[in-house]
Amino acid sequence: MATSRNNERIRYRYGICLNDNCEKCKSKEVQEITARKDFVCQNPDCGKPLRECPPPKKGGKSKLIAIIAGVIALLAIIGCIIAFSGGGEESPAPTPVPEVTENTDSIKAAREAAEQQRIKDSLDAAAAAEAAKKQEAEKEAKPAPAAPKPAKPASGSKDLGYATFKGSWPNDVNGRMVFKSSHVIDSKDSKKRVAEAGDYVIGEWADGHLVQGIWYGADNKVKGSIIIGK
Ligand SMILES: [Zn+2]
After folding, report:
1. d(Cα 174, Cα 96) in Å, to the nearest integer?
2. Are residues 115 and 166 located together in one domain of the fold?
3. pLDDT score, position 26
4. 101-141 helix and 57-84 helix, angle to the nearest 10 degrees
5. Each residue of 17-32: pLDDT tens digit?
6. Both 47 and 79 in a single domain?
7. Considering its fold, how many domains does the chain have in total?
C-alpha cells in the first residue's frame, strides 16, 4: 500500500490555478497533473502555471473511511457467522483485514450477499418445515370429523312403546323397528298393515315415518315389502 502511494506521488503533481479569469481557479479545483506533463492549468482557455499543493485529502479520507467501514462490516459479518455456527468453531475467517481498498468493497459485497442468501435459505427452510408441519397437523385433524354419518344400524335405540326402533331416530337410511306388540306398522301406510309382536321392519325412516323397508316375521321370514314414500 505504501509503495503504491509513493508511486502515485511520484507520477502525479497536484496544483491549483491562480488565474482569476479561469473556471478552474474559481472552482478552486485541485488539478492532477501527470509528472511528465507541463505543470500548467488544464483549462484549454487558460494554460497558466499551477501553484503546487498537497494531493486532495478528500480521496485519502474517503479511502480511509471505506477501509474502516469495510473492517467494521467484516467484523460484524464474522461475528454473525460465529453466532450462527454456535461459536463452537474457531473463526476460520480468512484475512480479517484486507490490504486493498477496492477488494474490501467487493469482499464486503460478496460476504453480505452470501450472508443474505444464507439467512434467506434458512428462512425458506424454516417456512417449508412450518408448512409441512401444518399440513401434517391438518391431515391428522381431518379424519376425526370426516365421518359424520357412518352406517351404524344399531348405534342407538328409541322406545316407542309398541316397538323399539334401533338406529338414529327419527331419520335413518338403515334402521330397524322391532315390534313388541301388535301395531300398525306406520300411520302413513295406506294399507294400514299391522305387525305382530316379534315382527320387525328393516328400512329407511324419515321424520319418524317409514319410507320403505322389508317386513319380517319373528321367524325371520319376509312378510312383505313396504313402500310408502316420503
Ligand atoms: Zn487556469
Report:
1. 81
2. no
3. 92
4. 30
5. 999 999 999 999 999 9
6. no
7. 3
From ligand 1's centre to the CA of 143, what distance in Å? Answer: 88
* 51 and 64 both lie in a single domain: no
Q: In terms of C-beta density within 10 A (0-12 exposed, 13-18 middle, 19 or more buried), how is residue 177 classed?
A: buried
Instruction: Read off the pLDDT of each residue in 64-72 and give the average, rounded to a whole number.
Output: 81
From the CA of 42, how far away is ligand 1's center (Å)? 7
Provide the pLDDT for residue 102.
55
Please, which residues have CB less than 5 A from ligand 1, an ion?
Answer: 17, 19, 22, 24, 41, 43, 46
Q: In which band, very low, low, confident or very high, does the pLDDT at 199 lie, cut at 50, 70 and 90?
A: very high
Encoded amino acid at 30, one letter: V
Q: What is the DSSP letter of 94?
A: S
End-to-end CA distance of the chain: 100
81 Cβ contact partners less than 8 Å away, ≥ 6 residues apart: 91, 93, 115
Please indicate, yes or no, if residue 67 is contained in any of the structural domains. Answer: yes
Q: Does any domain span residue 151?
A: no
Query: Do 65 and 112 lie in a common domain?
Result: yes
| Cα 206–Cα 209–Cα 215 angle in degrees, nearest 5 | 110
**Global pTM value:** 0.35
Kindly tell me if the per-residue pLDDT of 176 is higher than 50.
yes
Query: What range does the domain containing 200 cover?
Result: 157-227
